[in-house]
Write the structure tokens for this entry.
Amino acid sequence: MRRALRLAMRGLGRTWPNPTVGCVLVRDGHVVGEGRTADGGRPHAERVALDRAGSDARGAIAYVTLEPCSHYGRTPPCADALIAAGVVRVVTASHDPDPRVAGSGLARLRAAGIAVTTGVEAAAGDRINQGFFTRVTAGRPLVTLKLATTLDGRIAMANGASRWITGPAARAKGHVLRAIHDAVLIGSGTALADDPALTTRVAGFERRCPVRIVVDRRLRLNPDSRLAAGAAEGRLWVVTERSDGAAAARLRSLGVRLIAVPAEAEIADVFERLGALGLTRVLVEGGRGIATAVVSAGLVDRLEWFRNPSVLGDDGMAAIGPLGLTVLTDRPMFRWTDRRALGPDLWERYDAVRSAG
């Protein structure tokens, strides 16, 4: 199962709107076939592994990180494929909450006389597909907020200067984070001030460029910006209230996709729209305005925090702006899950602590 989980991890950021799944087929103690869900979500991991195993799949045990599907979509049900191949046992990590599956895949296997074992390495399997699960159950993608700050939580000097607060190793880790998310999102302020490319520029991940999203309600993005200029080579979506007019036409001519939202749309509505478009994992990179908005709305599921051992003081720009809190118990809470030194910097990962109510 751990081998299957490693295969599934390779698909992070590459299989949306589908989950990323790994499958390993074992017969007589030997791996006879394995695979992961292909980029774009098809073919599914089980089909890839079965094709590689051929006739050796008969009598094998299938280790699958997610319950095999039981519905017809663009591909036939994987549960049926496993049955037809003569697999004698299926071991799964995670339950699939998709209403089209939700236990019916396992039921179909059992009805065919196949032994089923569930919940093996379930925590790891659930974490890998938390984005897919969030889209299915909450109607939005998993939201990861990335912050690069000083020890006192500042992201820039008062004049806006921020390059570079963290060092090369931390920035390389940030590029890897982009590669394992479906999309990277910024606000229009960051797009105008920094003119970022939002591509992945680290060895081994150069071709894994996520969808780049700018929340730009007034459609201020410069057609000559690095983002717009690179729209033809990499997907660029702009979420805006102004999807008509000359500015919109110019951006569309460059290959930009405009995602129209009404003027009254809240940031939660924006992420629901992104979920409806199939995104399962979105990395929010900045700046302060968009970071404050997602924290205030309770949308942040994971926090990736890079801290440099320096201080800027109270005249520096804080990573998070006012949240309007009046009761201490209302403050957003996070649980530390991992940390690592990256050169002089410290990287820490946190998961959101959700209220039971």
In short: The mean pLDDT is 93. The two ends are 34 Å apart (CA to CA).
